[in-house]
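Sanity check. The docking grid for 2-hydroxyethylsulfonic acid depends on where the pocket ends up, so I'm generating a full predicted complex first rather than guessing from homology. Inputs follow.
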Amino acid sequence: MAKNIVVTGATAGFGLATARLFASHGWNVVGTGRRADRLDALQKELGDAFLPLQLDIRDREAVAEKLGDLPGKWHDVDVLVNNAGAAYGLEPAWECRLDDWDAMVDTNIKGLLYATRAVLPGMVERNSGHIVMLGSVAGNYSYAGGNVYCGTKAFVKQFALALRADLLGKNIRVNNLEPGLCISEFSEVRFRGDAERAAKVYEGTQPVTPDDIAETIWWMVNCPAHVNINRLEIMPLCQCPSGPSVKKGM
Ligand code: NDP
Ligand code: 8X3
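Predicted complex below; grid placement will be based on this.
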């Protein structure tokens, strides 16, 4: 019988690539997002295997109602990819818009919690499941302007590890995938639609691609059942973590 995967944020970037990859391997895929036109296009592309669910991940009732009781063949969720997320702005903390901070907390933290809480009871009941979180290197290393985005991804990392503790003894795996520089709509969203500024982020680099991320998720899901990848950090070769910054002359 085909397995079921729920991918939040399947209208672009990592989520779209993941939905396509799992569908190509015969999985039933539930894809969420706010942009109905993109979900419709994906349904046309993937056919009967795909269930489009238009929702804002910040809408607690909608997430509980729709993901908590999926219809027909999609009902039992084998894998949840908690991917929907965004960065808004890159200003220093004292100049940031509070609305952006709210939106990042509501999406990257609270939305991820709503989706997790909606599917987890079924997984526990069946004693079977797998949750992949989209964390980020931003949860491990700080950078100027990252402020609340970094904070949300640090939350995701710790929540993933804490879930592992709650789930110890059950056949439910939890991974935190922590990508670095990856090309997607991420920077365009961060810079409020400024495509030119977004393009500059990737200029002269060979970033990780959404397909690379989808392949990594595929690998994590297909590890032997007794193996759990707690955390996996992935960067392009052209990027590396570096130590604390020093400002001289102060
Ligand atoms: P994209 O902007 O390309 O895609 C983001 C996806 O999230 C879209 O499908 C979007 O759907 C969905 N989404 C955002 N906000 C909401 C919302 N309120 N309700 C429902 N869906 C929402 O970004 P990426 O694919 O790059 O990012 C995916 C995840 O990976 C995010 O969590 C991001 O933080 C993380 N990440 C990204 C990195 C990068 O460099 N690109 C690196 C590390 C982590 P829609 O707009 O239709 O609602
Ligand atoms: C996205 C990677 O470094 O832009 O999570 O924050 S970064």
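Relevant for the grid: The beta strands are 4-7, 28-33, 50-54, 79-82, 129-134, 172-179, 231-234.
Also worth noting: The radius of gyration is 18 Å.
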